[in-house]
Amino acid sequence: MNSEALLDLSDGEIEIVLNDLVEVHGYDFMNYSRASLKRRINRLVANDKFLSFAEFRYRLRNDDVYFKRFVEEITVNVTEMFRDTQFYRTLREEILPVLATSPLVRIWHAGCSTGEEVYSMAILLQEAQLLHKSLLYATDINPAVLEKVRAGIFPMNQMKRYSENYILSGGKNDFSSYYIAQYNAAKFDEQLGKKIILANHNLVSDSSFNEFQLILCRNVMIYFDKELQERALKLFDDSLEPLGFLALGSKETLKFSSISHKYRQVANKEKIWRKIK
Amino acid sequence: MAPFDIIVIGGSAGSLAMVLQILPHLKTDMQVSVILVFHRRSSEDTTLIELLSHRTEFEVKEVDEKDPIRPHVIYIAPADYHVLIEKDHTLSLDVSEKVNFCRPSIDVTFESAADIYGKSLMCILLSGANADGVRGLKAARDKGGFIVVQDPASAEVSYMPQQATEQLPVDLLLHDNNMDVLMDCLRSGRG
Ligand SMILES: C[S@@+](CC[C@H](N)C(=O)[O-])C[C@H]1O[C@@H](n2cnc3c(N)ncnc32)[C@H](O)[C@@H]1O
């Protein structure tokens, strides 16, 4: 296979690309984990069959449509409904009962990707009879995924798995009652989508825009270096009400950050922290 | 030749037995770290870590994101995450698309380790039923890494190591009776 031996950008060339992105497009990926970024960029360069670094660089600098494609391909948008079923069980059993006492429940999904996590949350809220008084803010850096959240349509071939996840997370209903099957797509109930507010928001450069009782940012900061993680965590801290909750991905932690002393982990095995100061 | 800094072991169906044979030979006078990329179902199952801990003087832990790579530690790839290595010798996790239908993928970690460790990397590919690992071995080889493959004849499931032996030169074929050669290579840097 000839195509395998194609272009492989060096660390120096990656650096140049990242500089261009800041300079030309105002997008800063400098503080992303390099190993993953390099792998994604090289994958893109191979898929799009660039023959030289110069050609790739020129295209990325001058073609806005291609830059859009770059952002879509470089960000990792893999997601799932009810991923980590135990986590959702904890939300259901320990966190939502606390939120229930608020007149208005504000939740922020930072780095929501195509929305599977947001719809999972909407289902939990509906089952806890909280959806009518909730607002789910769903934000991401990649505009293409936000369109998908808006549509609320997910691949049909995932539904068996999601239904199993749902039951393991403590769901008692018939999962298929939440969507209508249309060929190979599952269109989720519009009632669930009504409380979702979408926005383009970049954790690298944007600031706090509201106060929340619960913020979820799962498997987003694994792509950030320590410095950028610290920025994002400060942003979350600024955006959380006293006694609010912050939920991270199953392999992420607050432990080594400068805000950690203000938080207490709620259920030891799940990555949920409560703001106590 | 300098001894190796890191061993990355990739294994799938039928590879546990060989891992259990290798581990007791790792001694704390070797300044080496180990990453184990195993295709498995769920991270909630901690029995693997317990099982391995009983066989080695090294610490065994599942990778948390940004873990620094320290000698005398065996890092296990968590289910559903790829493991990559950064220049500052910390570990990164990644939930991107499956590679060869696998997450964690052996290819991903081999390639990343090759990029960072070059000649001081030893890759070991064990028994398994899919094509994961071969591409990564090629990358490791290109960067001067040392390539060990389980002898397909002695592997419980021969497909994965067979693919490797057919597609690239291998520095050492590992079977049940040459563990001492492997350890020699580890100490001296080369066979
Ligand atoms: C792996 S997905 C996680 C989706 C979901 N939270 C989950 O856990 O299933 C990571 C998401 O983070 C988004 N992301 C990456 N960098 C970001 C940034 N600087 N600001 C906001 N979102 C970002 C990506 O576009 C992607 O959709």
From TrEMBL, chain A:
SUPFAM superfamilies xref list: Chemotaxis receptor methyltransferase CheR, N-terminal domain, S-adenosyl-L-methionine-dependent methyltransferases
Source domain of life: Bacteria
Domain CheR-type methyltransferase: 2-254
Pfam families: CheR
Record-level Gene Ontology MF annotations: S-adenosylmethionine-dependent methyltransferase activity
Protein name as catalogued: Protein-glutamate O-methyltransferase CheR
Automatic annotation (TrEMBL), chain B:
Enzyme class: hydrolase
Domain CheB-type methylesterase: 3-164
Catalytic reaction equation(s): [protein]-L-glutamate 5-O-methyl ester + H2O = L-glutamyl-[protein] + methanol + H(+)
Annotated GO biological process: chemotaxis
Keywords recorded for this protein, A-Z: Chemotaxis, Hydrolase
Active site positions: 12, 39, 132
Known EC number: 3.1.1.61
SUPFAM superfamilies: Methylesterase CheB, C-terminal domain (SSF52738)
An example Gene Ontology CC term for this record: cytoplasm
InterPro entries: CheB_C, Sig_transdc_resp-reg_Me-estase
Keyword Hydrolase attributed: yes
Transmembrane segments: none
A single GO molecular function term of this UniProt record: protein-glutamate methylesterase activity
PROSITE patterns: CHEB
Pfam family, one: CheB_methylest
Protein name listed in UniProt: protein-glutamate methylesterase
Organism this protein belongs to: Dawidia soli
Lineage: Bacteria, Pseudomonadati, Bacteroidota, Cytophagia, Cytophagales
